[in-house]
Write a structure and sequence with these properties.
alpha+beta; globular; three-stranded antiparallel β-sheet; 4 helices
């Protein structure tokens, strides 16, 4: 059966990194309605239509440049998980549950918290980019530019300030998720 003959749809849905369980559940509901995930871009999901089915999704964050990436992929494949889509370093796996037994990809909350720690480390390049662009000592946008340049500079500064606030919010949400998972693993 060719993919070209299948009906597809693209859905916009704003789900953030700390809401991956919510995203997994939504993808499972979409499969139950006959829409299987085909690809992912930030906030955009492409599905193709199939017969409704029970599918379990799990998301993981793993840098594809890591030296153990081949072993990582093999472990998932050997456990029955199929890589459906990848967005940046986010991996979207699914499996058809056999006898309602689904192998979990994490055996503890502490191990699961490591996914969010890897994500925080993955966000570090954004900090470097931000500091480079917004650092007044580098004077990238120029403070003595013409009035049009000044307006442009202000717009860029407002955008970068909003980005910084959102970035701080993301880090706080991820850090609180890490701490919550780690505290639950001690109980």
């Amino acid at each position: 059966m060719k993919k070209n003959n299948k009906e597809t749809k693209t859905v916009f849905k704003a789900i953030f990194a700390w809401e991956d369980e919510k995203e997994e559940q939504w993808l499972e509901n979409m499969a139950a309605e006959g829409w299987r995930l085909e690809s992912v871009a930030p906030f955009f999901y492409k599905f193709h239509q199939m017969a409704p089915e029970e599918v379990v999704y799990r998301l993981d964050y793993k840098n594809t440049l890591d030296k153990d990436y081949a072993d990582y992929s093999t472990i998932f494949r050997d456990s029955g998980w199929e890589l459906v889509a990848r967005m940046s370093n986010w991996h979207y796996y699914h499996i058809n549950p056999q006898n309602t037994q689904v192998p979990e990809i994490y055996n503890s909350n502490r191990a699961k918290s490591q996914k969010y720690r890897r994500l925080l480390v993955g966000l570090l390049p954004l900090v470097v980019i931000y500091v480079t662009l917004f650092n007044p000592a580098l004077n990238i946008f120029g403070s003595n530019a013409s009035s049009t340049g000044t307006l442009f500079s202000k717009v860029i500064e407002i955008f970068l300030a909003a980005f910084l606030l959102f970035f701080v919010y993301v880090v706080i949400r991820l850090w609180s998720k890490i701490k919550k998972l780690e505290s639950q693993s001690k109980e």
